[in-house]
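Quick start: what a row looks like.
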Amino acid sequence: MLKGPIALGTIRISFVLGLRLLIQAGTLLLVARMLGPEEFGFFAGVTALAVLLGTLSTFGTNIVFFRELAKDSAVRNELLAYIIPTTLSVGFSLLVVYLLISVLFITSLGFSVLLLLFIGLADVLLQPLFGLLAIEHHARGRVARAQLLYNMPLALRMLVAGLVFYFQFSDALFVYSAGYLFASLLSVTIAFLFLADPWPSFGQWRLPIRAELADACGYAASNFAKSGPAELDKALALTLLPLEFAGVYAAASRVVGALTMPVTAMTLSALPRLFREGQAVRYGNKLLLLMYGATVIYTTLLAFILWLLAPRLAGLFGVSFHGVAEVVSVLAFAVPAISLRLVSGNIIVALGRPWVRVGYELFGLVLLLVFSVALVSGLGYQGMPYAIVLSEWFMAVAGFALLLSIRNQGSL
């Protein structure tokens, strides 16, 4: 079992992420029942696209901030002086890209552009800014506090979903999307007002120099590649499947993704130490053995339980989500692979090799796209979960093999 600070950190973070799991599960059920499979499929697809683009909004400077602050807190204001304007400028640019993609490929489904703007502002612009406010606590070793802060916009979204569900608005999707934006805006405001040390003033902001962009761009690509497998499938489902089936798939996928959170807790608790001591031989083998061992045991058991309980989980969504049990049963086989991919990827990034992670995860995304098109053509909507299983296992094996290669070269 995990010992010492990592074990204590894991327990604390597991509690906080357990709370997040309950919040996300409640929100998922409320929104799915409130919208029905067609509107839920649309909402899941467009938010997935926004979240995916939002991973690029900081251009990787959030990881640079995390890395350097974990080593020396004195560099905080010097880093934020260029990280804040970088996030704002890149975020606004990506918001335009998001709206262009949505107008070209999604609005033909008959949904409002204003609705898309609400979601884009929330996930492409505001959430990356909120992440900068929370990541400072994480870098300073206050991981549980940071994750508790991350729960705030999720809790507010659950509250909005509950209100929309209770009052039965005629255009529930539009109202919830507006509330979705408001939750993000309120979260950024609260987090900023209660920040212990103020951000640098506007007069202190500056553009990043070439060396700083070069340092960050690998992390930007890593952020994108890491989130891609968890988000791209929902966006693909929106274009490859009828809306009703896209909603069924998205509901099942969100269930499976949420259940990997304890593994996220473990890797998050270890990250500050990995960034500080990534090259230290004295603990590397033991730490890796503990992390991988715990991941394999937990996710294998979880996958088996999820496969057994899939029919009961389906009942929570209602009869309109017919077929969700079958999708969950298939996706259960991806759970160990998803978790192993996250463990290997986080360690590789902490060791200063973000482009290694980018390489195999981007190739995994290409495989996901190819498998999705091919299997949906042959199997219908059931082809999507099989595409996820195949691509996730490829990335899990590739990530572990590459980490072993780095280890053999002496990086650990």
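That is the whole record. The chain has one domain: 4-408. Confidence is low (pLDDT under 50) at residues 1-6.
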